[in-house]
Design brief:
The chain is of the alpha+beta class. It is built from two helices and 16 strands. A four-stranded antiparallel sheet has the order 3-2-1-16, with no helix packed on it. Strands 4-5-6-7 form a four-stranded antiparallel sheet, with no helix packed on it. A four-stranded antiparallel sheet has the order 8-9-10-11, with no helix packed on it. The longest helix is centred in the N-terminal third of the chain and has 26 residues. The chain is globular and about 50 Å long.
């Protein structure tokens, strides 16, 4: 009897694991060749050992390089450090980055010429700056998330892009749009990867982060995994 209970418990756990990962199995598209068609350069912040750090890559994600890490320079004025880059912008004309990071106890605006390693402090006590991150509107296109599904509006005509079939929770399930590519041909979005909130919660207990970022070709409606970044600026000629 005890053996049957153990086997039953193991079977239940197996079924639960399969169910919790089923959404990821069906949503992670194998259309990796989609990335080879992407043009331009992306600049983004990504967590390295918990710290938001600035990187660049070609949009096809073949050549990722570190732009700048503020690690060791973010003295918060109280004997501790905050190494995060909380906002940034790249100006392709001057080939210069501006970003906000901690400096001697205050959030400050820095300037960094591409290829250099030592930034210059431009202004102290700065919490906001002009950025050029991906947006949910591009000319006559806009995208919105409704109950976990993504809807595309073009010239006032709305169609569904990604249908979420599960138990929707604003925090734990569904799709969320990040924004369009500069040419309007692609949409970057995020998926929480689970049918139910409990799946996301359980994964969050054992993982550093949950969910994945995808890019969708608006002409074919095919998608594939993209860079998991905090903020993304996409530059095209």
């Amino acid at each position: 009897m005890k053996k049957k209970v153990v086997l039953g418990s193991l079977l239940l756990i197996l079924i639960l694991v399969i169910f919790l990962n089923a959404f990821q199995f069906f949503t992670r598209s194998a259309n990796s060749d989609l990335l080879s068609d992407l043009e331009g350069t992306i600049y983004f912040t990504e967590r390295v050992d918990g710290v938001l750090t600035l990187f660049k890559s070609d949009a096809s994600l073949q050549h990722k390089v570190l732009v700048y890490s503020h690690n060791g320079k973010g003295n918060d004025g109280y004997g501790d450090f905050n190494h995060n880059i909380i906002d940034f912008h790249y100006d392709r004309i001057s080939e210069t980055f501006t970003f906000i990071a901690m400096n001697n106890g205050s959030w400050s605006l820095f300037s960094l010429k591409e290829g250099e390693s030592n930034p210059t402090v431009l202004q102290a006590d700065v919490m906001e700056m002009d950025t050029d991150y991906l947006q949910n509107e591009n000319q006559d296109l806009s995208v919105a998330s409704k109950k976990g599904s993504l809807y595309l509006s073009e010239n006032g005509n709305e169609s569904i892009l990604k249908k979420f079939n599960g138990i929707y929770d604003e925090k734990y399930t569904g799709y969320d749009s990040i924004g369009f590519s500069p040419n309007g041909n692609y949409l970057v979005y995020r998926s929480m990867e689970h049918f139910t909130p409990i799946g996301t919660i359980l994964e969050g207990i054992f993982a550093d982060s949950v969910g994945n970022t995808y890019i969708l070709d608006l002409s074919t409606r095919e998608s594939t995994k993209f860079i998991d970044a905090h903020q993304i600026q996409w530059v095209m000629d």
